[in-house]
Amino acid sequence: MGARTVRAGAGLLPALLVLLLLPGAAVLHAQPAPAHQIAPGVWFLLGDAHKGYSNTTLIEMQDYLIVVDANYPARAREIMAEARRLSPKPVRLVFDTHAHGDHSYGNSLWTAAGATTMAYAAILGEMDRYEPARWQAAEAKRADVRDLHETTVQRPLKTFRKSPYVLRDATREVDFVYLGWGHTRADGFVWLPKERVLCTGDAAVNGPRNKLWDADIANWPRVLTRAMRLRPRVVLPGHGDAGGVEILTGQRRFLQDLYRAVQQQVQAGKTAAQMNIQLPEADGNWTPGDLAWDVEATYNEITQHEPAGALPHAWK
Predict the structure, then answer these.
(1) pTM (2 decimals)?
(2) Does the pLDDT value for residue 15 go beyond 50?
(3) Which residue, 50, 106, 170, 198, could crosslink 70 as a Cys pair with Cβ 3.0–4.6 Å?
(4) The CATH number, out of the four listed (3.60.15.10, 3.40.50.720, 3.20.20.30, 1.25.40.10), of the domain defined by the range 34-249
(5) pLDDT, position 32
């Protein structure tokens, strides 16, 4: 296999040029991506990466809707409108897969609209640990956060500790699952056992969209192995297109290869700044244009013998 250093965004330019030549292309770009039906009553909404949005899943129960990931405030409003278009049922539950702003900063809008927000219990510690500093940083960059005129993220109204937390009615079963510390201490998965659909949050992404600063990088592949044991038919990642189990296997391989490569250079006596990491071509989908932050987080975890997320760090 060949080595890969930087290929993020390769092959996109021709496609973009074609789009720009299409009539109405600017109008299409301004509209949110349409919901994609994954199974009857299950829709996947791709988030606009240019606006910092995460993906969202809508799940229809007998009498109400479940939203997976509250998203940023502006996207939350878009999702509310899309939910009304897709189903006459109200949104009653919004599940935050983890604490990061693109998955949780819309919480207060959802509760104001009558929904209950929920997450794995460790999210409260994550929010207490990093907020309101991250909220304030988002306010400086995002009008939709500023416009809420709030001082911090609203914590989920409901949490669970025993996994899985199961909701079941005449329509379907929905399992909220915790599999361990991966991307964050509080990674929650949503599993539809009948449809074999798995929502991963950022525990698995499809593309070079990983953030390792709050992670347990060594344990993260084990979390993904547990997710793979569910044998999902469809994987709905926190960012990037939907797919199958290859999203889980590819994410796991990238993390393992990165950890191994950094560890080898640590053993050779190199500092993070001295490292020249080349990952296998198979990792290309997950390899960012600049690996420096991933290398630094992994180096810190290896040399300080603690998960990267347990060490003092700033969000980058």
Answers:
(1) 0.89
(2) no
(3) 106
(4) 3.60.15.10
(5) 73
